Amino acid sequence: MTTRTTVHLLRHGEVHNPSGVLYGRLPNFHLSATGEQQAKEVAAFLADRDLVHVVASPLERAQQTAQPLVATHGVELATDERLIEAGNLFEGLRVSVGDGALRSPKHWSKLRNPFRPSWGEPYLRIAHRMLGAVHRARAAAEGHEAVCVSHQLPIWTIRLFLEGRRMWHDPRRRQCSLASLTSLVFDDEQLVRISYFEPVGSTDARVTGA
């Protein structure tokens, strides 16, 4: 007999970011009114699931996204630092393609190696810390379901890693919309399936701060 456990990787909802900067790990970036509604809709989407464990990145937007889930299922919210957003040297700057910091020669040295990447936390390091957080959540929810609230790049990176794909990629092609669920299904400790859901619909990966 095997024990089936599902770990849902939930991306946080929309963030209030009127300046359109890359906020990364900066403090005081919270959900917008739309983001708060998205969090409620995800909680409603998962209301009938056998959810026994909810854990979130320490960043405010992830903690806020988790709140409707813990209220709906009557569980305590845990925090795992390994679910945090990726480190990035462009934090606080506008980085849309053809705009802001990317047009300035003083920043071009940061772009020298897109395969690592040279402007931020290495992809393999992201994948390894996320995998550790996932397996801790799997163990905590063994035989049931868990939700890990994290961020777009960490979620997309671990998905690429688990699917055996290259981790360097075009950010505009990530399949990880706001408040989306990337669900990992385990039989015992063996990953058997990865599924993707968009409970609140799709959003544009090219929008900085989304």
From TrEMBL:
Domain of life of the organism encoding this protein: Bacteria
InterPro entries according to UniProt: His_Pase_superF_clade-1, His_PPase_superfam, PGM_Phosphatase
Family annotation (PANTHER family): BROAD-SPECIFICITY PHOSPHATASE YOR283W-RELATED, PHOSPHOGLYCERATE MUTASE
Protein name: Broad specificity phosphatase PhoE
Species whose genome carries this gene: Actinoalloteichus caeruleus DSM 43889
Taxonomy of the source species: Bacteria, Bacillati, Actinomycetota, Actinomycetes, Pseudonocardiales
